[in-house]
Design a protein that fits this description.
alpha/beta, Elongation Factor Tu (Ef-tu), domain 3, Rossmann fold, 2 domains, six-stranded antiparallel sheet, six-stranded parallel sheet, 21% helix, globular
């Protein structure tokens, strides 16, 4: 199998600041919601790639990727300049274990994301699996500024489709707001504000958590959850917390 398959840019969307999403038409192997591929461009004669999770559900086309432009990175400043019809490359087969197939049964599913790590959770929420498997689903998205709360139309649509079953909790650390929790996710877990906002208790017996974000967010969130009696899930040692670093 070739290392790369050629794709065609369908559309580019600028959300705010350095946040963009890219829609791509490409033939890749079937994937599970929550998995990632690599996007790549030829830079000075070499392929430069970076992993990105699918935002689209496995049955949806085109493929979509939510990303942040890193000014010093060789790839992302070029990604944001792509236009419809331009060529981009992808790995032909997806990777990753941040999928519901790896999550044990439970009553409540918590999806805790920071920044662009929202992407894989949107893919999961577009499928039937979370709604069939769990009584309640909580999506928590942490950003610095309110304008970075992307995909609000989709999230509101999910709230309408799954009224009474879906809770969205925004967390904003860099400015005050009258609708979001302030600070960071770990602190909101520690002081009980996250549970109060969601209206659901975090408990080892009923809660299953998927945590995705920058390494510091993931580590601090896992620590806060462990202090509450929850533990990481492993196939040989089942627990409540599944994690993936994403930045």
């Amino acid at each position: 199998m070739s290392k790369w398959v050629e794709g065609t840019v369908v559309a580019q969307k600028h959300w705010a600041g350095h946040l963009f999403s890219l829609q791509v038409d490409a033939e890749v192997a079937p994937f599970q919601a929550g998995q990632f591929t690599k996007l790549a461009l030829a830079v000075d004669g070499e392929m430069v790639g970076r992993p990105y999770s699918f935002v689209n559900a496995p049955t949806e086309r085109p493929h979509e990727f939510y990303y942040v432009v890193l000014p010093e990175h060789p790839l992302t400043p070029r990604l944001c300049k792509l236009e419809a019809g331009d060529t981009i490359y992808l790995t032909p087969k997806a990777s990753g274990f941040l999928t519901l197939s790896e999550v044990p049964p439970g009553e409540h599913l918590w999806l805790l994301a920071s920044g662009t790590a929202l992407g894989p959770f949107l893919s999961i929420l577009k499928t039937e699996a979370p709604w069939q498997r769990f009584e309640r689903v909580v999506l928590v998205h942490a950003v610095r500024r309110a304008e970075e709360l992307s995909y609000q139309d989709l999230i509101q649509s999910l709230q309408a489709q799954h009224a009474g079953k879906f809770v969205f909790v925004p967390v904003i650390s860099g400015e005050d707001s009258d609708f979001a929790l302030g600070g960071r996710i770990p602190k909101a877990i520690e002081d009980g504000r996250l549970e109060a906002k969601a209206g659901i208790r975090l408990e080892a017996q009923s809660s299953r958590l998927m945590v995705c974000g920058n390494p510091a967010m993931v580590a601090d969130t896992v620590h806060a959850l462990q202090e509450r009696g929850l533990k990481k899930h492993r196939r040989r040692d089942p627990g409540q917390i599944s994690v993936e670093n994403y930045w």
